[in-house]
Amino acid sequence: MPSPRQLSRDLRLGRSPDLSRRRGIVALSFVGAAAGMVVGAYQMGLIRRLPSLPFRVFDAERVDASDYAYKRAQTPDALLMLVTYGITAVLAGAGGKHRARQTPLLPIALAAKTIYDSAVALKLGQEEWAENKALCDYCQAATVASIASVALALPEAARAVDTLMQRTGVSEGTEERRRRKALRDLELAEDAARMAGGTAYADPEYAGAE
């Protein structure tokens, strides 16, 4: 596990394919969080209008002012977006340059979180359309960011899984070697005992006693 100083150097100055992908996931999380901030400002009355793209399928104001947008946790759903994309960014930022080898559970957790984000975003998109016959373009931008994050997270997660499998294999191999050594030691002890017994019965004193 890197020290805080090493972590600072790794994250700010490090160069590797995994780090580049992690930075991409952080950037995409910021896109999702930014969408949540804009929609959240509308849902909380900080702004009065929420412009949408000039396509009939999009109507952010109608979607984000509807019952659908306020039915979870007694709070505007866009504020929940801030939380979930913040967690994704934290998982992308946690750990050093070689975390797939040093702390493999972090890349695996990140991949799982991005898959979860994507599944939830797609499900919410279906609900948006079913209840409002329109989509929030800000929310759909966040969905695209989530799906792109999955693609970026999977390579590092695959290496992390390999690391865990190798560690498990080494552990199992060590136990197997110990078991075999114990069996060899037992066999040697038995052989030594048999040899000692044979030598004793071959001694002339024993022969004379007979």
General description of the model:
By secondary structure, the chain is an all-alpha fold. The protein has helices at 4-13, 17-43, 60-64, 77-93, 99-102, 105-132, 137-201, 204-209. The longest helix has 65 residues, at 137-201. The protein is elongated.
Alpha-carbon distance between the two ends? 73 Å
What is the radius of gyration computed over CA atoms, rounded to a whole number of angstroms? 31 Å
Based on Cα principal axes, name the global outline: elongated
Largest sheet descriptor:
none
| Helix content percent band | over 70%
Give the structural class: mainly alpha
Portion of residues in beta strands equals under 5%
Number of helices: 8
Oligomer status = single chain
Order of helices and strands: HHHHHHHH
What's the pLDDT, averaged over the residues?
A: 88
Number of strands: 0
Concise summary:
By secondary structure, this protein is mainly alpha-helical. Helices cover 77% and strands 0% of the residues. Helix 2 (17-43) packs antiparallel against helix 4, helix 4 (77-93) runs antiparallel to helix 6 (105-132) and helix 6 packs antiparallel against helix 7.
